[in-house]
Design a protein that fits this description.
The protein has a six-stranded mixed beta sheet with strand order 1-2-4-3-5-12. Strands 8-9-7-10 form a four-stranded antiparallel beta sheet. It folds into two domains: about 325 residues, Aminopeptidase (3-Layer(aba) Sandwich), CATH 3.40.630; about 110 residues, Alpha-Beta Plaits (2-Layer Sandwich). It is built from 13 helices and twelve strands. The termini are far apart. The radius of gyration is 24 Å and the shape is globular. It is α/β, with parallel strands linked by helices. One of its GO terms (molecular function) is dipeptidase activity.
Length: about 475
């Protein structure tokens, strides 16, 4: 008899816990549903004012205003970056951090239409969806804050406003200054053309400018008196291109000549090339970067010029955390993907006709949630440095039409209309529900930290940037605003 009574009590307790859990989820999702229009307007405001890294004054203010209105305490100008911020809602308990990005890209100005339509010639655009990124994080944090208040829960929410992800790596300076030292777990996301919450790795990267100084002269009348800085850049590029045969297959090396002279009949006395070197192993990145530097030095020696190296970013790859990723995948699966209405489906079909590929996925991909896996993404993010100091998790949602590549006008177009907003709210719900799980389940945080320590065993994080200051001028010359 006692056994059956205790069994009934156990069943009742389980149903009670399940009921509470359902109630918590319903509160958070209802809150976000009710605020979808408001946050869509915030995302659109940032989209209409695309600002490059370290110049995101309007964008960061839009997010800060929402956070202040919700009752967060906001600090600005952290780590020497005027557009950075930290918004805190402190009710004790576990500390859950969120990462907000809001910088745009140069040269991707585009209207929210399914054909190429430039708004500002040479202007900026949100080709990586950071107008959605930062807004979803703020929406998620505000929803969690209101859930904490409604349920008298002890927890602290910290939202980190991180400038210049698209070159400049603002998060690294915040990590270096210890701003994440008291955080138990960090949550973030990124726009994409599909929905997934994998335990993700990516490439580490070094990025910088190689500035060559020569001697100007008349290219025809007295060429012997000139020393071409552009020749030095071209010699360097040739040597690095030959180096590609002799690096690991997981490597990525990109460059662009940002300055190469002003007139063909004037020997250029100044030329600049920007390089990015990537590899999943940060040690390999360091080694390749030194080889690139030696190529630059050799080019300067051979052309009788002088070279200066200016590092603008150095970031680690992502350190995965499967404990957190599996929790986030569970929540993403519960939230579900993005469903198009008739107008959005027509927009998506039209934009797919502009893709430069024969492999166009079905629109139904936006509705699906991809199976969980431990996977590698060959690009880079300064979230990597955060993941080396605190357990970190992220997800992708379908803010872009399936088949869309990042950093394209097609991505900009979707980021400024309802397809992007729907994906943004999928992300906001998933992040908020994951934050809720971490707050209610201390064992989950404990397990995530245990996995974090195990993955870090034998590794010691040291910022690749050394003691350099944030390169606030990084995008200044490229900035064209509406």
């Amino acid at each position: 008899m006692k056994k059956s009574v205790f069994g009934l009590i156990g069943i009742f307790y389980c149903f009670q816990v399940m009921g509470q859990e359902t109630s918590h989820e319903a509160f958070i999702t209802k809150n976000l549903d009710e605020n979808t229009e408001k946050f869509s307007k915030v995302a659109r405001e940032i989209w209409e004012n695309p600002e490059l890294g370290y110049l995101e004054f309007t964008s960061s203010k839009a997010l800060i205003d929402e956070l202040k209105a919700a009752g967060f305490k906001v600090e600005t100008g952290l780590s020497g970056m005027p557009t950075s911020f930290l918004a805190t809602y402190d009710k004790g308990g576990p500390v859950i951090g969120f990462l907000a990005e809001y910088d745009a890209l140069p040269g991707l100005s585009q209207d929210a239409v399914p054909y190429r339509s430039i708004l500002v010639e040479g202007g900026n655009g949100h080709g990586c969806g950071h107008n959605l990124f930062g807004t979803a994080v703020v929406a998620s944090g505000v929803a969690l804050k209101e859930w904490i208040d409604a349920n008298n829960i002890q927890a602290t929410i910290k939202i980190f406003g991180t400038p210049a992800e698209e070159g400049g790596a603002g998060k690294v300076y915040m990590v270096r200054d210890g701003l994440f030292d008291d955080v138990d777990a960090v949550i973030n996301w990124h726009p994409n053309d599909r929905n997934s919450a994998d335990a993700l790795t990516c490439t580490a990267v070094m990025q910088g400018y190689f500035k060559f100084f020569g001697q100007t002269s008349h290219a025809a009348g007295s060429p012997e008196r000139g020393r071409s800085a552009l020749d030095a850049v071209e010699a360097m590029n040739m040597m690095v291109n030959m180096m590609r045969e002799h690096v690991d297959q997981g490597s990525r090396i990109h460059y662009v000549i940002t300055q190469g002279g002003l007139a063909a009949n004037v020997v250029p006395d100044y030329a600049v090339v920007e390089y990015m070197v990537r590899h999943p192993d940060v040690v390999e990145v360091k080694d390749m970067w030194q080889r690139v530097i030696r190529a630059a030095e050799g080019a300067a020696l051979g052309t009788d010029t002088r070279v200066e190296v200016e590092v603008v970013a150095g970031i680690y790859g992502l350190l995965p955390n499967e404990t957190l990723a599996k929790t986030m995948h569970k929540n993403l699966s519960a939230v579900g993907g993005v469903e198009y209405n008739e107008e959005e489906a027509q927009f998506a079909k039209e934009i797919q006709t502009t893709f430069n590929t024969t492999k166009v996925p079905p629109l139904s991909l936006a509705q699906e949630v991809q199976p969980y896996q431990l996977s590698h993404f060959p690009a880079s993010t300064d979230v990597g440095d955060v993941s080396y100091v605190v357990p970190t998790v992220g997800l992708f949602t379908a803010t872009w039409v399936p088949g869309t590549a990042a950093h394209t006008w097609q991505a900009v177009a979707a980021d400024g209309m309802t397809i992007g907003y729907k994906g943004m709210m999928v992300a906001a719900k998933t992040m908020a529900l994951t934050g809720k799980d971490l707050i209610l389940n201390p064992l989950l945080i404990k397990e995530a930290k245990k996995e974090f320590d195990e993955r870090l065993e034998g590794l010691e994080y040291e910022p690749l940037i050394g003691d350099m200051a944030p390169p606030l001028h990084f995008r200044a010359d490229q900035n064209k605003v509406k």
